[in-house]
Amino acid sequence: MCLAVPGKVLDIEERDGTxxxxxxxxxxxxxxxxxxxxxxxxxxxAIVHVGFALQRLDEESARQTLALFEELGLLQEEFxxxxxxxxxxxxxxxxxxxxxxxxxxxxxxAREARQ
Amino acid sequence: MKYIDExxxxxxxxxxLDDIHAMATRPWALMEVCGGQTHTIIRHGIDQLLPEKxxxxxxxxxxxxxxPLEVIDKALEIAARPDVIFCSFGDMLRVPGTDRDLFxxxxxxxxxxxxxxxxxxxxxxxxxxxxxVVFFGIGFETTAPPNAMTVYQARKLGIRNFSLLVSHVRVxxxxxxxxxxxxxxxxxxxxxxxxxxxxxxxxxxALAERFQVPIVVTGFEPLDILEGIRRxxxxxxxxxxxxxxxxxxxxxxxxxxxxxxxxxxxxEVTDRSWRGIGTIPASGWRLSxxxxxxxxxxxxxxxxxxxxxxxxxxxxxxxxxLLKPHECEAFGTTCTPRTPLGATMVSSEGACAAxxxxxxxxxxxxxxxxxPVA
Lengths: 115, 374
What we know:
The complex is a heterodimer.
Chain A: E1 5-15, E2 18-25, E3 28-33, E4 45-49, E5 52-57, H1 59-71, H2 74-79, H3 82-90, H4 110-114
Antiparallel strand pairs in A: 1-2, 1-4, 2-3, 4-5
Chain B: H1 10-23, E1 28-34, H2 35-43, H3 46-49, E2 54-61, H4 63-66, H5 69-79, E3 84-88, H6 102-107, E4 111-114, H7 118-127, E5 132-139, H8 144-156, E6 162-169, H9 171-180, E7 188-192, H10 193-199, H11 204-211, E8 215-218, H12 222-238, E9 243-245, H13 257-266, E10 267-274, E11 278-287, H14 296-299, H15 315-319, H16 351-357, H17 367-370
Parallel strand pairs in B: 1-2, 1-7, 3-4, 3-5, 5-6, 7-8, 8-9
Antiparallel strand pairs in B: 6-11, 10-11
C-alpha cells in the first residue's frame, strides 16, 4: 500500500471542481487526482500513491522504475485482484461480494490490460 | 555475489558495494524505516551482500502492521453491519483481528469492498445514498493526504453517508520512540522516501542533532538502498550526523506544500497506539473538530470492543528492530501467511512476510554468497 508507482498523464479534466487525470502505469490506466501537483501537464510523469499524484518525476526515472516494478511483480501486486491474492494467501476460496462482482474480476492486471 | 545480476545496473551495484566494503571499519547498525525498503532488502539479499560490520535493522514502517488490534476489531464490527459498505485497501483483508479478518467478514455476508483510491470509496457513497460507506483510513504521511482530500471533498460535495475510520501514524515520533528506548541499538536511519515526498525533510535535522544519528532519505529500488547505505556508512565513519537526501528525483526539501496544507486543515496531531509497541505521544492524526462528523468512530458505537492480542506474537519486537522475524518461536510454525498471528506476517510490507516469502529462515549465507568480490 505504501508503494507509490510512477505514471504518465494521458489527459486532464476538471470533475466536481477537482483536477483529475487519466494516468497510464505501464499498461494499467487509472483515474488520478492532481490537486497536490496542480501544474502537472499531459505527457509528464508523476509518482502516484492511492490515486493521488504526489511529486513530478522525470521520464527516464519513471520508465526505469516501471520496468523494474513490472519485472518484480509489484505492478501485479498493486493493481491485481486483491480478493484472489488474499484467498490464495489464506488457502481459501474467494467468494463473490455484495457488490455482485466475482472476486476474480475485481481488478485488472497489468498483463490483461496490455493485451 | 549471489543476487547481484538481478540488479537493474549490476555494475553500479558492484561499485556501490565495493565502496561500502572499503568504508566500513567498525560495526554499524542502520534502521530502514520503511517496510517497502525491507522487502527490497530481503528480496535482493542486500543484507547478505553488505560487510558483516554493517547490520540492517528493520523498522516499524509498515502501516498495516502497526495498526492496533483495537482498530482492526472496530473495522470488523463496522464492516459486519448490514447498513454499511466497508471500503479498504486490499492489504488489510487478511490482517487478523481478535477472532476474524475482513476476508472472513465478507464471506459471512458483510459488504466489504476493496478500492484503489479513497476517492473510489467516496464515489461508492455517492452511488449508494441509502447506505453508510466507511473507508478504512490507515497509513503514514504518504497515505494521509489522499484520505484528507477525500474527507474535504465529501464535505464540499455535501455527501453525508461517508465516514473515515482513522488510524494514521507519523514517522518522526516513531524515530524518537525508537531512539529513547533503553534497548535501542540503532545508529542511523534510512528514512522512508515517499513519506519525505510529502513531508520534506524539515522534521529531521532536530532528530539527527538530538540523537546524533545520520538520517539519509532513501528510495525503494535496490540501487537506491545501496546508495542510501553508502552515504549513511560514510557519515558514521566520519563521525557526522546530518540529514542527507539520496532520493532527490522524488523528494524535495520542502516536500509537497499543498498536501501538507490539506493535512493541517483536515487532521490534528494526536497520541496513537501502535500495534505491538504501545502508545507513542503525538504519533498520529485524527480528524480535526470541524470534520468530526466524518469520523466513523463517532458515527458508530464501537467503543466497547474487547481485544485479545495473541501472546505468542512478538511482532512488537520485530517492529522495533529488537528481534529478527526468524528468531520468533512461532515464525513458520504456528504463524504463517495462511495462519498469521500478527499483521507483520500478512502485510505486503511486513518484515515477517518478507522473511517467509524469500525463505529467510535463519540460515547464515556461505562466505561465497555473502562476499562482494565473489
